[in-house]
């Protein structure tokens, strides 16, 4: 049975409320039902409805008998497909606010809606159970406001840890949705307006994107374009052809040279007029810093003297063997390809180097003595 109640004590606001009663009449259990449909007919009823997602809300009182309970049943339809939402309304002696969200992520905008209130359930029917309803309404979901600009690094080195990206809080937002470029991994607070990101080796950058989100959807986004710079490899130092200058194997935007542990003023790829001693170099490119090179021992020649006159390497090009003729004491021999990769190393003095099994191409030969280094390019046929 359904009644319109105007007693002020049973009205939450306004002039009247709805009261739904369950009772037994002539030995029949009569459910108190309020419904916008033909009961038990899956195709009947429904109110035209064109919003995306909402929440049904209002106020109720419920006085059950025995183990009875009331329920709310809501159905939404789009293109002939129904989705169902429901909840129990527990006992409440005083007016109590309730909500029933019906966010339907799979359907989008619905075209019709129907709802049913009952003062009893099949499993716990109690004669005399009463449900009052008032201020029924649909609370429209507000999507988050448009976001502001993202703050954070737009240029960085690969392997950079703990990069901070943040955005001012967005109004009407419950959480934040971040989308990262390849190789960017969020390490903290992924649902907040400030995150920390590790940038892995191999990433080239891209757009960092964020938007606000609520239960019914995601708002507009904003983005920050990023570039990830390659960190230079570990450089290798060699001697130029005239045996008076040192050269870094890698080019960069800046260089840091060390001589016997002391930083030099030179900031170029070549150190002219090198002096006897131990050299190291660091290569910098777009603020990305390489590892420090291995130590390179250099022997400065007297004026008019040249190692090339004291060391003979032949034949050039070589086939199976490369011969070395010198009266100087050789402590170590290194052969590297043009990428700086060590392909052969021999300790002690030798007269020939076995090239069998090596691919054809240009190689860098380095002979190392106690206080001298000799470097030259050789060809393998």
Structure notes:
The protein is mainly beta and 381 residues long. The chain folds into four domains: 2-140, Jelly Rolls (Sandwich); 155-229, Immunoglobulin-like (Sandwich), CATH 2.60.40; 237-298; 307-380, Immunoglobulin-like (Sandwich). Helix content is 0%, strand content 51%. It is built from no helices and 34 strands. It has strands at 2-5, 17-21, 23-25, 28-30, 33-35, 47-48, 54-63, 70-78, 81-89, 92-101, 112-118, 130-140, 155-157, 163-166, 175-179, 184-188, 194-199, 205-214, 217-229, 237-239, 246-248, 254-259, 262-263, 270-271, 277-285, 288-289, 296-298, 311-314, 321-326, 332-337, 342-347, 352-354, 361-368, 373-380. It has a five-stranded antiparallel β-sheet, with no helix packed on it. Strands 5, 6, 8, 9 and 11 form a five-stranded antiparallel β-sheet that branches. Strands 22, 23, 25, 26 and 27 form a five-stranded antiparallel β-sheet that branches. The model has no long low-confidence stretch (mean pLDDT 84).
List strands and helices in order, with pairings.
Layout: E1 2-5, E2 17-21, E3 23-25, E4 28-30, E5 33-35, E6 47-48, E7 54-63, E8 70-78, E9 81-89, E10 92-101, E11 112-118, E12 130-140, E13 155-157, E14 163-166, E15 175-179, E16 184-188, E17 194-199, E18 205-214, E19 217-229, E20 237-239, E21 246-248, E22 254-259, E23 262-263, E24 270-271, E25 277-285, E26 288-289, E27 296-298, E28 311-314, E29 321-326, E30 332-337, E31 342-347, E32 352-354, E33 361-368, E34 373-380
Parallel strand pairs: 13-19
Antiparallel strand pairs: 1-2, 2-12, 3-4, 5-11, 6-11, 7-10, 7-12, 8-9, 8-11, 14-17, 15-18, 16-17, 18-19, 20-21, 21-24, 22-23, 22-25, 25-26, 25-27, 28-29, 29-32, 30-31, 30-33, 33-34
